Amino acid sequence: MGRPLSTYVVGAFVLSALEIYCCFIPKDDCDFDPEKEAIVTHSMWLSIQIGFAVLNLIFAPYMQAKVWKTLMQEIKEKPQYAASGKQVVPKAEVQDAFKKVFCEDFGVLFYFFASIMSLVWCYKGMYKWGDDLEPDCSLVAAASLGQALVALAFVYTFCWYCCPCCAKAIELEQQADHHYDRVRTGEGDSD
């Protein structure tokens, strides 16, 4: 939880889990009206919606890991230490790492286009093909949660990209590999 974007990861996990749950509890008599000219059945729509939810489950920790990896590479180049002896990563560098990953990573680009497809899929399912279905057919809940996941990603992206107050400085504990370097170079204790 001390890493950047941890609240985004938790929020994405909770919303994705709820969406997957809603997709698995449809009634048997739910199906799209043939006059609506839906390109899939109700159960196929729910299956594809599960795919979008799983993509969100994968992307949230992927984005966090990419930002963390970028930060670790940057602090190796120019370490800064606090009075307590802990290594400090200023919030400007945390935000810069987020911006770099957001603008340069192909996984983020893929997720951007998948998010647009997810919004279109939710809209088609909820307002075009399934607008006359009963509320307990789980389509409305699944589509709403799918839209909420896209909104969550958009809000976090906007806040982290545009607002410097959203990022915070990180204090890192002393890394175990520092001891390894001392021992390897002959400094410190010799075992």
Automatic annotation (TrEMBL):
The chain crosses the membrane at residues 6-24, 44-63, 108-127, 139-158. It comes from the Eukaryota. The keyword Membrane applies. It comes from Prorocentrum cordatum. This is Uncharacterized protein. Keywords: Membrane, Transmembrane, Transmembrane helix.
